[in-house]
What we know:
Shape: globular
Number of domains: 1
Distance between the termini: 47 Å
Helix content: 25-40%
Strand content: 35-45%
Number of helices: 4
Amino acid sequence: MTIASDLLNRHFQTLVVDNAQWQTLIADDIVWELAYAPAIGHPARLSGREEVVRHVAWFLEAVEKFRFFDLKVYPFADPEGAVAEAKAEGLIKPTGRIYQQDYVLFLRAAGGKIAFLREYFDPARAAKALDIPILGLES
């Protein structure tokens, strides 16, 4: 196991169930890119601890019984890089809809902390669960 693969495992283990512990994993200058998030009105990039923690707090407030499963972590030759695939599901509290998602997440570590994340997910699934339009699509 590498530094980055360990951090990725711990990211998925703690993000939802022990967010205070998760916050100890992230660097103060963390950058989290959400490549497809603008399609649902969310930022494509979160910069710094405060912005990341605020976005995660919104997510945690919006979901119930959220869990990751079928996690596969692939370390890079560089011990500070890794990628993971995971499935997730939970209930979106404001809509009462079930949210099911497949994620791919790239992580870069620095100083033993999560310095960079790039997350890919299906925005159509998120839009359906959140009951919001996909921006840029014709009705």
